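Run log, item B.
One chain of 660 residues. Sequence copied directly from the ordering sheet:
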Amino acid sequence: MHHTPKCGAGLGDTVVASPSCLQVEKRGRRRDVVRHPDLFRKKAALFDYLRNILVNARQIIVDGADKLQTEWPNVHKEILGRERRDGEVQDLADVQDLVRLLITELETQFKKNRKLEQDADQLKVDTDVLPFQTQGGGDKAIQGYQSKIAELQKDVDKLVTDLSLSEENQRRAEEGQEAMKFRHGSEIRQLKDKYEERAREIQRKHEREQRRLEGKHNTEKIEQQGIWDSEKRKILDSQRGKLSEVQDQHKIEMNGLREKYELNRKGLAERISNMEQSHTLKVDQMEQEHNSARAQWRTTTSELQKKHNSAIAQVDREHKSEQAQLEARMSQMKKDYTSELEKMRENFETMKLQLESRMAEEEVRLKTEFKEEKAKLEMVHAEAKERLQKDVNAYSAALLSRDNFKPTPDNEIKARFLELVQDVDTLARLEWKVDQKEWTNQVLRLLSPNQRLLKKQILQDSVWAILNEYIFCSPFRVFGEEGQFLEMQWNEGCGKDSQLDNGSYTWPKPETETERWRYVTIKECRAALRQPVPSEWDPRAKLKKGFKTSIDALKKQLTSVLSGIANLDENDVQVVEKLTIKAANIWLGFGMQRCRILVVLKGSNLKSANERIRRAREGTLRLVVAPELRRFGDSKGLDLHVEEIVGGCDGETVEVSMRQ
């Protein structure tokens, strides 16, 4: 239920009524407090809520609707919808529309609080009927009374919450009015003090009334337990009469409140109209001041523009004068610079010719001195080299004279190697399988018209490539892993010669100490192969194991390659085994010689059949029928720088191609 300010209070004014109105209001409040304390608290809360609404409405109009969105969102939304044609929100010039919106919002709030008024009436009825219920019904009446007490406590809590919300609204209103304290400071403080005092007084009265009712209830419950039957009907009649009186009194009060609300609404409308007129006057005054300031600004701007143009013209004249002076100075400086540059160029050319002449003479002199010094050094170097070579030869001859080794003659080396070549030739005469996957008849016909000879040459090239990979590529490869370790030691101690790289190993440059390390090591390894090994931990055991593993791998590789092309029987397998042993023994014998002996394959050095066929398609495939046997030095290990082919071991290669 709404309570409005009495006796025509204006919007935003402190609620101060006339003496007659205050006396009537005070008498009514005393009756409400005595008869219905809960109803009075609700009325007071609603009165304060309505007062806060009016104060906030005035502050909203004065401050330009700063809190409009928070307090009345519907009004704020309506104002935002009123935009100018240029997209800017109106500055509340249309005060009449705003007043209508405020009145509509007040009526809406009044309708919403009608429900609260009905709740207050129901609470008053429940309060009047409460004594009858407390004196009748026995246990059921007691339970009903207890439930009513609980509901009353809930209502009290709700009212306390409403009071808290009212206090929060009051606090927000006070915060919004801080900017206007110089006009309404005393009114706000008085209103706040009266409000707080009234709230404390209502709270104290409520607590006293609650304690009184509880004590009275306990006393009457004990006293009236025996006589409640006789008094039941009498109390019921009495309460009905009181209920009728209270309802009549409530109607009278409601009519009075409605009249007061209507008076306050009219006062509010009159107040808003006065504010609208005041606002219009202020707007007109501000427009006049704005027009005056704008005219003054235009006058000042015109004067400043004239001064600015005059200053620019003066600066422009000074700039042109200085520019002409600078251009004249620059022209003179260019002439001086050109003349000076020409003199410097002539001096430079003269100095350049002199320096070139001196440099040419110095260059001729240095070249002559260099040639003379070079000739002297070359002569000294040749003499020193000749002396060192004589010393090396003498040292090698002395060592050989103490060595009981008998070098193998050239004819025997030739015979052993040619015997191996013949064995490979015999092995290569195997009959080929019919269903060849790589070497098909079409491929063979494209390579050579004599397919039988071509097949033998292909097998010879395959066998020599495998023998070179497992034996002939280095002096120690035949010993397997231990042989590779010896190869690494030989390179670390004697270096590598890039001209002696066969694709699998790079030999060192042939020198006396290099070859001595080779044949001494081969001699010891060969002796270790012939000696029994007492334990597997003996170093010679690893050497023998590596040799056996390498020979077995060689046999397996030869057998695999040959069986993939030709038909092998047991005799052929035995021939392969004998061939591998013979090749290893021949190579060990060559390795013990004082000279260096190399088996050189001048073919394409390809391993698989697919690689050979691809080379034949792309270019020329060179097949090794027999390798070349080369030697560095003589049988005594002298003249190691001399390289020659062993007589009768020139080797043989065949070139085939599918492009023929």
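Observations after the first pass:
- Residues 403-656 form one domain.
- The radius of gyration is 65 Å.
Flagged for discussion on Thursday.
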